[in-house]
Design a protein that fits this description.
Number of helices: 6
Number of domains: 1
Number of strands: 0
Helix content: 55-70%
Length: 100
């Protein structure tokens, strides 16, 4: 697995509403409903080990490959990011209350 690809995949995960919902739930909220992005606040939010998960789950790797393909011409839609993130966290997209 190429490091640049892995970092790109983490950018997909971190820019999803799924991750934002986890950050709101497990992190500290500051004025205006924003999440405190300080290191000591963000360390409580679990991140899946994508490199390890790719070895265990070929479907997750295929999803990441598709997102990277899309990313060559345009940034993936939020629904695509959310689907990837929910699968990376081993949940169903329907488990999340997301406003698309």
């Amino acid at each position: 697995m190429d490091l640049i690809e892995l970092l790109t995949d983490y950018s997909f995960l971190l820019n999803s509403r799924v991750f934002f919902m986890l950050a709101r739930e497990l992190g500290r909220i500051v004025a205006g409903g924003q999440v405190d992005g300080a290191k000591n606040q963000m360390r409580h939010i679990p991140l899946p080990d994508l490199a390890e998960r790719y070895l265990q789950d070929a479907e997750l790797k295929a999803r990441a490959d598709r997102l990277r393909e899309i990313n060559l011409s345009e940034y993936p839609r939020m629904s695509e990011l959310n689907a990837f993130a929910s699968y990376a966290y081993r949940t169903k997209l329907s488990d999340w209350s997301l406003a698309e």
